[in-house]
Amino acid sequence: MTAAKVAAGRSESGVLDRVEAARRRRPKLRDTHITSAHGAGGKATATLIDAVFLEGLRNPLLEPLEDAAVFTVDGTRLALTTDSFVVTPLFFPGGDIGDLAVNGTVNDLAVAGARPLHLACAVILEEGMAVDDLRRIVASMARAATDAGVSIVTGDTKVVQRGRADGCYVTTTGIGLVPADVRLGAARARPGDAVLVTGPIGDHGITVLLARGELDISADLSSDTAPLAELTSRLLEAVGAPADGPGVRAMRDATRGGVATILNEVATAAGVGVIVDEDAVPVRPTVRGACELLGLDPLYVACEGRMVVIVAPEVAEAALAALRSHPLGADTAVIGRIADDPPGMVLLNTAFGGTRIVDLLVGDPLPRIC
């Protein structure tokens, strides 16, 4: 090896060490006012949650910052989650704010290993909203709940003055049962584990963006919004998620911030590196083309019916087969692996033969996507 190559290797290693050290520091909220970036699911969101909500509300159930809190009541393990939806427009190809609200909360329960049971729904309506639009949204929620096998059992309604909301905002809260032998969490990822994604990424985000009609771009594309509980159940039945031994380590639905955000959360929680092969990441040509035109990276674009799955290498093939056996997982792909180094970071092996860091999303290129 030449001296130049040795020097280059040391330089690259030094850069990674400095980046890793910076990311280990506790985030500080320097903003004095909320911006749209704080809702994008990226770096600003993580800082806001850590510095304000986690700092002010800290407790053992909240600290893992998983998609749902899992706890035990009288010997029964339960999962509880909540989510708010402010998508604009309210209606878009493949869905609307109604089924999005149901599927999003159902999926947060499902990736926690739970069987979703019931939902609560709170709706904020704007004065002047068409009642026919509200009926359409409620009908969509009812269909989605039926498809997901849950009931909406309680709720609340508020109305604000004209101009104080964009028609309708929805918050859904869900509860589900978690099997006694299921143990999941981003911190459980181990070097050697396989990283899977259950289908083409970015469909939802690009669909909603184009539905706003602000860009002179048309595409035959629909949101991927769908309930994932059957898919997660099939996966867990096939390979399990035991506290010890091989199985599923973690599942996350890739919503705001996309797959890149999930991978960064896994890397940070487990103190591992995540190595992704760009060529292995499934992206529809339509989504890739739109992203190229708009200067977006598909890894950061929201999905609403895809999840990232971390599995032990011993069961990776069985997990892949189980996911592909379900229509919502037919296009599942292995996109990378968990590594020892660099801890807390995600690296992408690019299609051009290089390597780049995939950091948390900065800014908010796609506001109010869910």
From TrEMBL:
Pfam families, sorted: AIRS, AIRS_C
One GO term of the biological process aspect: protein maturation
Location of region: Disordered: 17-38
Residue ranges of domain PurM-like C-terminal in the record: 190-342
Protein name: Hydrogenase expression/formation protein HypE
SUPFAM superfamilies, A to Z: PurM C-terminal domain-like (SSF56042), PurM N-terminal domain-like (SSF55326)
UniProt signal peptide: none
